[in-house]
Structures are given as C-alpha cells and as structure tokens.
Amino acid sequence: MIVDSLKNCEKYVACHEGFDKAFAFLRRAAQENLPVGRYEIDDDRVFAFIQEYTSKTESSFEAHKKYIDIQFILSGTEVMKVCDISQVKLSIPYTEDVMFFEDNERASAVVVEAGEYGIFFPWDAHKPGLCYDSPSEVKKVVVKVKM
Questions:
Q1: Distance separating alpha carbons of residues 48 and 39, to the nearest angstrom
Q2: Number of domains in the chain
Q3: Between the CA of residue 97 and those of 64, 65, 68, 75, 103, what are the distances in Å?
Q4: Counting C-beta atoms within 10 Å of the first and last residue's C-beta, which end of the chain has fewer, N or C?
Q5: pTM of this prediction exceeds 0.90
Q6: What is the spatial distance between Cα 127 and Cα 93, in angstroms, rounded to a whole number?
Q7: Quick one: which of 129, 111, 133, 126 has its CA closest to 58?
Q8: DSSP string over 62-73
Q9: Where are the alpha helices (DSSP H) in 9-51?
Q10: Are 141 and 80 in contact (CB under 8 A)?
Q11: Which residues, other chains included, contact 79 with Cβ-Cβ below 8 Å and sequence gap of 6+?
Q12: C-beta of residue 120 within 8 angstroms of C-beta of residue 126
C-alpha cells in the first residue's frame, strides 16, 4: 500500500504504465467536481468510479487480482485498513475482480483525508470506507488500473 497526497503523484508514475493516465484523471476530478458515476479512461486498462457515501464502522477486507486500486478522497475523511493478503482468511472466493476476507485486527490503519489517496496492489487486502471519529460524508474516486 502507498498513501500520499495528489501533489506527490508524479513520484509514482514509474510504478506502472497506467498510473500516468490514472493520476491525470484524479487531477481532473479534483479540479472539476465531477459527478458520481463510471468514467472510461483507457478502455479496460484504466477506468474510474466516483462515489459518494457515508463512512461506516465496519466493512470487509477485499483484494483484487486483475486491477490495482487507487482510492482518492475528494472530500471528507475515512480510515483505510490494509494487511498482506497472506494474513487474512478467505471468506468469499474470487469472482470477477474481487475476493473478500475475514477481519484481521492487527491490520495497519491510516486516516486518509481530502487530497490524499491509497494505492492497493493485488497483495494488499484492504478495508476502505471506515469512519474516523464518527460516520461522515465522503466523496471518493476509485481508479482501477489493470495489472
């Protein structure tokens, strides 16, 4: 997992060929206040979802095999938990691009605020969308970058 702010995104472009397009879209989303929905960026190689929701007290760990997640907070604050996929027990097998896991109380947690993102690779079991102090409204972009 990588956690950083949008101002530092150029440091990560070399990590994957799709990151340049992903971060260009995130900069656009941050500037233009785009509405909720799905956005095609580069066919099935890079696409995004803009979501609005109330952060929650509980969710499940998930991981993806086909895509890297870049989860960028446009507004609000949430906690994202992460651990290595080897540290969690599978609860719902892989379907499409997601599998779910039982909880891991020893997972690392990070508070992610507006202008910041988490990058989750296939080996990162992650649990995003959690509330910090109390549930709050969050607007987030999830960019999917094909492995």
A1: 5
A2: 1
A3: 5, 6, 10, 26, 19
A4: C
A5: yes
A6: 16
A7: 129
A8: EE-SSEEEEEEE
A9: 19-32
A10: no
A11: 55, 109, 110, 111, 112, 130, 131, 132
A12: yes
Query: Which tokens go with 84?
Result: 């290595």
The length of the chain is 147
Q: Say how many CA atoms lie within 13 Å of 120 toward its Cβ.
A: 28
Domain span at 130: 2-146
User: What string of DSSP letters covers 54-115?
Assistant: E-BS---EEE-SSEEEEEEEEESEEEEEEEEGGGS-EEEEEETTEEEE---TT-EEEEEETT
Question: Over its length of 147 residues, how does the chain's per-residue pLDDT go in tens digits?
Answer: 999 999 999 999 999 999 999 999 999 999 998 999 999 999 999 999 999 999 999 888 999 999 999 999 999 999 999 999 999 888 777 777 888 888 888 899 999 999 999 999 999 999 999 999 899 999 999 999 999
Alpha helices in the chain, H assignment, sequence order: 19-32
User: Which CATH number does the domain housing residue 119 bear?
Assistant: 2.60.120.370
